[in-house]
Amino acid sequence: MMDVKYEKQLELKTLVVKEQLKRIGKIDVDVNPTIPSDLEFGYRNKMEFAFSYSNTEGVILGLKMRNSNKVINIKECPISPSSFNKVLEVAPEIVELSKAKIYNPRTGSGMLKHLVMRYSHSNNQTMAIFVTKTERFDEAKFIRAELLRRVPQVNSIIHVMNSSDSVVLRGPYKTLYGSGVLEVEMDYEKFQIPPTAFFQNNYHIAAKMIEYVIKQLDLKGNEKVLDLYAGVGTFTMRLAMLSKYVVAVESSHIAVKAGRANANINNLRNVKYEETDVEEFIRSYDDKANVIVLDPPRGGAGKSVCEHIIRVKPEKIAYISCDPSTLARDLAVLKEHYNILAVQPFDMFPQTYHVETVVLMSRVEE
Fold this sequence. Notes:
It is built from 9 helices and 16 strands. It is an alpha/beta fold. The chain has 2 domains: about 5-40 and about 200-365, Vaccinia Virus protein VP39 (Rossmann fold, 3-Layer(aba) Sandwich), CATH 3.40.50.150; about 45-185, CATH 2.40.50.1070. The radius of gyration is 22 Å and the shape is globular.
């Protein structure tokens, strides 16, 4: 969408949310204007680049074509921080010199698959993650030394071993250089994010979303909160600062470990992490909760989770969504027992058609 003026992009996103709620959820409500990103370019704090090899060009590093293994050689990415582009520029030559064998998904030969870049806008830290098919990465020493010499902005270099072709960033890892975690600071909390853990892609928008959710929930300090799909604790930490007790539910082992560490870093003793599938947890949950916050992946929470949320009867719900169509589907279930108080889109992904939405709900008095 880079050819569309930014103000127009924001208008279109507001329209998309309104249209999806109406068409899929049969919900006709006011949708607030989309909150803009502080950065229109250079905002992404994570990019997944793929390696490829051609006899004419040698080592190629770029982005995969949609539904294809073909890698398009790119020299720079305008929505990435400048340090990513510096690495993108020099990495193919460094890898070529190292003689590392590039992985071929068609034949299964070779081993070097991806270069994932991560960045902390608050602490100006750059992490480079090399993903290989095998455990052996003899060329790592040379690659590390050359990369640090040519791009001194890199603070951490990680080696991830991942034999799966369906997910890029998964599997055991070791730190080749630096602290091995990305440090992110918000207004009131600090996070340490491991190389393979998820974190919101746009730092400034994530900060605005936390502020918005907390302000709208208007916590009094005596609430018990369920934070579903909690990740490394993006919302958990601030919720815990302002409520009595938070139960954070997350299925990823890496994220749970990081979430517990983040609660410690922020001196929070009123957070309990449950490492389990959200649907399994909420199905067997028989306690009460005053507030439920949920931030599911693109597929949404689904009917079963929504029905169990209704059964738990929280007074307030904050639903954070990265896909308006699954949001609309889930709200259609929740709206039978909950009033929609506010629908607020956020521009997490400028220059793309993606939009993040926060919906606040309160229980209908029966």
